[in-house]
DNA sequence: GACGCGATGGCAACGGTGTTGGCGTAAGGC
DNA sequence: GCCTTACGCCAACACCGTTGCCATCGCGTC
């Protein structure tokens, strides 16, 4: 899975493309992310990626098994960027919070990529490294192995899940996004209190939350629960 | 957004297709879900859907604006099925838990559909109805409007987000799913303790959690936190 | 220094996708 | 009985991921 088509040893000999680019796996990934980041770019495709590199679509298959393989590589690159430069402070709760927010932000910076990639467990190097860090934080904080794994699982999947969900709406074509927004205004703001009293009573708050992610909120609630569990087991205090 | 192409009033006159089917919006949605549920079906496409109905691909556009519109209709149908037959018990915590699990399960029953649809805020009738119910549960339980909306937001988005994430891995083609599974076994089970001590120490628990969703766990943690907040505000007890 | 061979880039094609315009026809309304 | 209109169908378009095939370049070997 995700094995390179060509061994690294042979990668010495390179031929520049017709327009002078020297291709590499990393260059494909970087260019793909650049394409996906373009505001009104129509998304990633093998053909557009090849065009951006001034080469032929078929050339991609010299470096990746296919689109799926490229997708996994993009996901791992996002994870690398998410934790790049991060340093642990030793306070488990704020460390976890910071890590979660970083992953979330990294994916949101490339919404289209997130949608493509985040559902895959790639097992690539940077993802494994992140998993080791998170488990380390929890076990060092005093959680037992069973609890640590359970919280790790909930934490990681929650971060990825919100990243996918939030990225998915960002990744919508602008027309669809505007339509959704208008729908919210007209539907939820003007619902009669007779039929939908609770929505009508809270519509002001609902609209305020409309375009903001619920992830920080959900993350804090997860950490609340974890901290309470830790306090239950030990009589001691957790972090901060 | 999602407005029908043809007014309902005109829908009286129907002509059967060449193979005798009488088409309708509902029939398209049901057939699409049936296609998506097929174990080794290659997913949904306009052409396959048309073929399953014994009609022409272009006929779909008489009933929906396009694939995106059909997608929203499918999502709303999933929501309808999720809450069909549900009854409130009056205990807010177990009511919310039951609702969350139902939505999650409903989406997982049609993974491909979930991937397509759950990222869209459709604002269709069954989704609005579910929102009203959830807000009602929270406000009746004693949460203030601000807190109710915040918890509603986290609860709904978390349920959808996990549904998408979990469905996405279920929706993978069988080859990719088996590859991911093998990758877990070889990567996480046999990682040397020297380089990855925390993964190595907990690998038994990690593997055990591998194919199970973290959603129930995360849901309980969210409800934990909400209950603690409620207990903070009132001196009273919440539910159960 | 010439050769051979394998790695690489480019061309053309295949089967698939969502979508559109136009044509015939059958069903109501008047 | 006519006319309008909704509907099913055909053909075509542009795009997608993928795959043989061929030309060419670069390095190791003799």
Automatic annotation (TrEMBL), chains A, B:
Which PROSITE patterns does the protein's record reference? HTH_TETR_2 (PS50977)
Q: Where is the signal peptide?
A: none
**UniProtKB keywords:** DNA-binding, Transcription, Transcription regulation
Annotated membrane-spanning segments are: none
Q: Where is the HTH tetR-type domain?
A: 22-82
InterPro entries in the cross-refs: Homeodomain-like_sf (IPR009057), HTH_TetR (IPR001647), Repressor_TetR_C (IPR004111), Tet_transcr_reg_TetR-rel_C_sf (IPR036271)
Q: Which residues bind DNA?
A: 45-64
- Does the keyword Chaperone belong to this entry? no
In Swiss-Prot or TrEMBL terms, this protein is called TetR/AcrR family transcriptional regulator
């Amino acid at each position: 899975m995700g094995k390179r088509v060509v061994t690294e040893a042979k990668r010495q000999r390179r031929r520049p493309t017709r327009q002078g680019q020297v291709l590499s796996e990393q260059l494909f990934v970087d260019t793909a992310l650049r394409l996906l980041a373009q505001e009104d770019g129509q998304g990633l495709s093998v053909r557009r990626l090849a065009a951006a590199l001034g080469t032929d679509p078929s050339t991609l298959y010299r470096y990746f098994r296919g689109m799926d393989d490229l997708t996994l590589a993009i996901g791992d690159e996002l994870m690398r960027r998410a934790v790049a430069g991060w340093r642990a402070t030793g306070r488990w709760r704020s460390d976890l919070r910071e890590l979660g927010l970083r992953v979330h932000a990294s994916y949101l910076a490339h919404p289209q990529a997130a949608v493509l990639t985040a559902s895959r467990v790639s097992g690539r190097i940077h993802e494994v490294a992140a998993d080791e860090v998170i488990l380390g934080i929890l076990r060092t904080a005093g959680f037992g192995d069973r609890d640590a794994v359970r919280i790790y699982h909930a934490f990681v999947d929650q971060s990825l899940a919100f990243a996918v969900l939030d990225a998915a709406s960002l990744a919508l074509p602008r027309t669809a996004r505007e339509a959704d927004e208008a729908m919210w205004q007209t539907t939820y703001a003007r619902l009669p209190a007779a039929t939908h009293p609770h929505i009508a009573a809270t519509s002001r708050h609902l609209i305020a939350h409309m375009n903001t992610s619920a992830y920080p909120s959900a993350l804090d609630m997860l950490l609340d629960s974890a901290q309470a569990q830790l306090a239950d087991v030990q009589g001691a205090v957790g972090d901060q």
